[in-house]
Design goal:
- The structure is a single chain.
- The protein has two domains: about 1-145, no CATH class; about 170-275, Cathepsin B, Chain A, CATH 3.90.70.
- About 30% of the residues lie in helices and about 20% in strands.
- It contains eight helices and eleven strands.
- Strands 1, 6, 7, 8, 9, 10 and 11 form a seven-stranded antiparallel beta sheet that branches. A four-stranded mixed beta sheet has the order 4-3-2-5.
- The chain is globular.
């Protein structure tokens, strides 16, 4: 059995010090407005991927900068959905800007396979719930669901590119579509190798499921974040671990690929600082984050 998994799942930690909980990743139910809670799986998945991406090297400082900026500009926990109390936004922004992150919950280290664990000792630079929700709202501005949601890989890619432009970053994006027509779909080994290569490079994979077929662990018309894959060689069966609204779920990739009536697809990305324009070379400026 060959297994490949992201090596540092603690990068997904989000803490709720008031409740003494450690969450794995973002939850679309944290959005304040009903439409965002209903249609927010795409931006929530991209938020997960950014959280992991910004944690490379063990210093997700850009995450704090983004959250502080979002809060300071009024896109607080519920600001984009009707307004967050200004004092809350100001306090959170001030705390982040001064390097005073959210307080760690008391207790032991969280279980990496658990979605929510009471207590836990996340890294001091882990996001708190309010900062996390502010960041989700910022991502929503770029990965914005339409009438049918973010229902293609191309729509997700455009949102990622928009986010990267605003942040002054250069995206490295790859995608693999799974068409509705069975004859046009990638083989299981092609899909498994795409996912495996992304994970080996330290990149989570966004997974769009338009119809779950006989795989009952998935919600249809839904994005989730792939964090692991395992299979026997030669590849005839493959399972994946996905992060879905703070829950880590194991499901059959092979079953989904065989039985989904609508298909979906996979997207991965990495981010790097954008190269300065020739006219800007040698000119100092503020960080894009």
């Amino acid at each position: 059995m060959k297994k490949t998994r992201l090596t540092d799942l603690e990068r997904f930690n989000i803490i709720d010090s008031g409740k003494g909980l450690v969450y794995k990743g973002f939850d679309q139910d944290w959005y304040g407005f009903w439409w965002r809670r209903l249609a927010g799986c795409g931006p929530t998945t991209v938020s997960n991927m950014l959280l992991y991406e910004f944690g490379r090297g063990g210093a997700p400082a850009p995450m704090a900068a983004h959250a502080a900026s979002a809060l300071a500009s009024g896109v607080g926990p519920m600001a984009a959905d009707g307004g967050a109390p200004a004092p809350v936004a100001a306090q959170a922004a001030s705390a982040l800007a001064s390097g005073v992150g959210p307080a760690a919950a008391d207790g032991g280290a969280p279980d990496a396979a658990s979605a929510k664990t009471p207590g836990g000792a996340p890294a001091p630079d882990a996001l708190g719930r309010d900062e996390a929700t502010a960041f989700m709202n910022r991502v929503w501005r770029h990965v914005t669901p339409g009438k049918g949601g973010v229902n293609t890989t191309g729509k997700l890619v455009k949102g990622i590119e928009s986010y990267a432009r605003e942040a002054g970053l250069t995206p490295d994006i790859a995608s693999l579509d799974v068409p509705e027509a069975m004859a046009s779909r990638p083989r299981l080994d092609e899909a498994a190798c795409f996912i495996e290569e992304c994970l080996e490079r330290g990149s989570p994979v966004a997974f769009l499921n338009l119809d779950n077929g006989t795989e009952k662990q998935l919600d249809k018309w839904h994005w989730v974040t792939i964090i692991g894959i395992e299979y026997e060689e030669p590849i005839s069966e493959a399972d994946i671990d996905v992060l879905d609204n703070c829950n880590i779920i194991n499901l059959s990739l092979s079953r989904w690929l065989k039985t989904s009536t609508r298909g979906g697809g996979f997207v991965k990305f990495g981010l790097a600082p954008a190269a300065p324009a020739a006219s800007e070379a040698g000119v100092s400026g503020s960080s894009p984050l």
